[in-house]
Every structure is written in C-alpha cells, then in structure tokens.
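User: I'm curious whether this sequence folds into something compact or stays loose and floppy. Could you predict its structure so I can see for myself?
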Amino acid sequence: MSFVTEIELLGYHGYTAHERAKVIADLATIRITDLDAGIKSAAIDLCARYRMKLADALIAATAIRLGIPLITEDKHFRKLKDELSVHLL
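Assistant: Here's the prediction. I'll summarize afterward.
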C-alpha cells in the first residue's frame, strides 16, 4: 500500500476509538511503501498525462511500480486501466 493511503486512513477524523484501533491494527499487517525515485517519476508522468491530483498519482504510481492491482472505490482511476490493473469495489 502507498504511504499516501496510510496517511489518508490515519488522518480521517470520523473514526470512533474502536474504529481507529481497528484501522491501526489492520495497517500493521500490510506492507506500506514509501516514496522512492521510481514512484516519484511515475507519479510525475501520471500527473502530466492524466492531470491527476498528486495524492492519487502517488497511489497509482505505487501500484504501477510494485506491479500490484489498485483496489479502490474511486471510479476516476478507471482511466488508468491501460497503465495498471484497477479493481473497483
């Protein structure tokens, strides 16, 4: 998972104490990938070609760089179907 997704999840203000604890526990079982030169380069490319917001480009670039599917509820990622495997929830 991208570090951006981790920030988005942990930064959400609407959790109950129990929900926040569950998110933290779940994140402890997931590999979090930090920014590297390859992800940065892919994100720049996505921003330029698709006019993506930076956070979304970083999330997609992480999936591209790691060769993993992007699992999301955000339908706007469908435009990247030629770049990576997008699975909508």
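Summary: The mean pLDDT is 96. DSSP finds four helices and two strands in the chain.
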